[in-house]
Amino acid sequence: MKSLPKTFQQFVRNYPAIWRAHEELAQACSDMGPLDRKTRELIKVAISVAAKLETAAQRHAIMARENGATKEEVFQTVMMTMTTCGHPAAAAGWQWVSSALAKPAKSRRAGGRKKA
Predict the structure, then answer these.
(1) Distance from C-alpha of 37 to C-alpha of 64, rounded to nearest angstrom
(2) Spatial separation of the C-alpha atoms in residues 95 and 89, rounded to whole Å
(3) The pTM is what?
(4) Which stretches within the chain are classed as H helix?
(5) Which site in 21, 57, 79, 113 is 20 to 30 Å from 100, CA atoms measured?
(6) Residues 6+ apart with CB under 8 A from 17
(7) For residue 51, which phi and psi values (nearest 5 degrees)?
């Protein structure tokens, strides 16, 4: 949890039951179909970029890499948002993901979550 934004960490500490419910829903969504973890994380990268969620895009890019995605696959996922969401969204997503993936793997993993 230490790798998550401080505001998010505070939310989890203040509302643990809501966080657990969120995690259970995320796990149920993951378990309901045939997509593997890498594919699910790449989809979450695209959704995060499209929704302009910088921290989520960064975190899911890292989790995609941790689950077997190449950097090329992550960046293709970001670029796929261009035709649906526009150049500004894709450019912002590219910047967010580039920043996240430029950090050393050891510092990215500190306290990271593995679920959903």
Answers:
(1) 8
(2) 10
(3) 0.82
(4) 6-14, 16-31, 37-50, 54-66, 71-80, 82-85, 87-102, 105-109
(5) 21
(6) none
(7) -85, 0
